[in-house]
């Protein structure tokens, strides 16, 4: 009989067993105000066509075009919040940097990565933003790095170990809302440990009521960490504001994996990451800046070791 695993963190237990965990009020009111201002400014620029790294309505997965849709449907995301060329005041650019490399985010990430993870194991990955579109838009049910065409056996091979065995995560992904009443993320709890059921395979890709689904409700400052291969979708209303920071942090043990490299590098982060300036983190001490530099270097190394990664999914 398999022995139940020992979890060093209650957060890891919840992530491993359910596929997601929510932390309430991660940000202070001051942090929320600063980040919301920066996010609103960048979103306005992206909607005006002044920032080319966007997620366009009608296109679910990368690569996305750099121009706005001709039908006026707009965008549902803004890419590369750590890009050195963001057309924002330095204070706003620094706000994104300080959040991504904050003790709150990184200490949580370390709890959700393999036991014993230290700063020297962390890998800088992605930091983007999800926003209200100008036309209602929904993502199909999907797993971020497993195509819908995968067989049950292929899914089983790619998913995390069942909860009765030792948990192993080499990255963690999160959504942090800057506004109240964010209900865009819909998922099926526990589906990260099993292949899709026959009913899930037969369902319409945009089925609005999949059995067992859960709407994740976030208010301003709340963050949901989730397994990116849990069965999930996004539902975007043009009538409801959404400003959600969307990031991931990796573990060096997974950085050499072609699958993880593809999931990260397909977004184009390797094209600019070496130019990032993390000097603002020096306000927190040299250790904070050096931690970020190390995370960036491990991402650069991932790019050197994995060329022409292609794209995870079509559509």
TrEMBL record:
Instruction: Print the keywords alphabetically.
Output: Dioxygenase, Oxidoreductase
**Has UniProt tagged this entry with the keyword Oxidoreductase?**
yes
InterPro entries, per the entry: Phytyl_CoA_dOase-like (IPR008775)
An annotated Gene Ontology molecular function:
dioxygenase activity
Q: Keyword Oxidoreductase: yes or no?
A: yes
Any Pfam family hit: PhyH
Protein name stated in the entry = Phytanoyl-CoA dioxygenase
**Organism source for this protein?**
Neurospora intermedia
């Amino acid at each position: 009989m398999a022995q139940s695993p020992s979890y060093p963190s209650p957060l890891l237990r919840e992530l491993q067993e359910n596929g997601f965990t929510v932390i309430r009020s991660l940000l202070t009111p001051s942090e929320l105000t600063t980040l919301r201002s920066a996010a609103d400014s960048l979103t306005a620029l992206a909607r005006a066509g002044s920032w080319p790294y966007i997620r366009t309505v009608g296109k679910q997965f990368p690569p996305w075009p750099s121009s706005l849709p001709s039908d006026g449907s707009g965008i549902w995301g803004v890419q590369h919040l750590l890009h050195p060329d963001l057309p924002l005041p330095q204070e706003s650019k620094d706000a994104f940097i300080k959040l991504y490399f904050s003790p709150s985010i990184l200490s949580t990430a370390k709890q959700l990565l393999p036991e014993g993870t230290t700063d020297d194991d962390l890998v800088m990955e992605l930091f983007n933003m999800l926003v209200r579109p100008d036309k209602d838009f929904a993502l199909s049910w999907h797993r971020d790095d497993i195509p819908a065409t995968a067989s049950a056996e292929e899914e089983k091979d790619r998913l995390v170990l069942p909860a009765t065995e030792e948990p192993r995560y080499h990255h963690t992904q999160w959504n942090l809302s800057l506004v109240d009443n964010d209900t865009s993320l819909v998922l099926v709890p526990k589906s990260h440990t099993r292949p899709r059921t026959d009913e899930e395979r037969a369902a319409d890709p945009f089925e609005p009521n999949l059995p067992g689904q859960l709407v994740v409700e976030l208010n301003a400052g709340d963050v949901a960490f989730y397994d990116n291969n849990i069965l999930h979708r996004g539902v975007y209303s043009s009538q409801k504001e959404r400003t959600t920071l969307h990031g991931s942090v990796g573990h060096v043990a997974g950085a050499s994996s072609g699958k993880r490299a593809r999931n990260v590098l397909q977004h184009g982060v390797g094209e600019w990451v070496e130019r990032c300036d993390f000097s603002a983190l020096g306000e927190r001490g040299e250790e904070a800046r050096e931690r970020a530099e190390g995370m960036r270097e491990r991402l650069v190394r991932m790019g050197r070791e994995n060329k022409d990664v292609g794209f995870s999914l079509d559509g």
